[in-house]
Design goal:
Blueprint: H1 26-44
Length: 45
């Protein structure tokens, strides 16, 4: 999702913190990445 924000694509490290709109734990981030990966692999067949 973050990569769909045009200005965020070209920001240096740390400067994109202004685009953050939620606080997530490490476990939540990993769970979201796993879910997105599973969904992507499912669509590939």
């Amino acid at each position: 999702m973050e990569h769909e924000i045009e200005p965020l694509k070209y920001e240096g490290a740390g400067q994109s913190v202004a685009w953050c709109n939620e606080l997530s734990t490490g476990a939540q981030v990993i769970a979201r990445l796993v879910a997105e990966t599973r969904e992507a692999l499912h669509t590939l067949g």
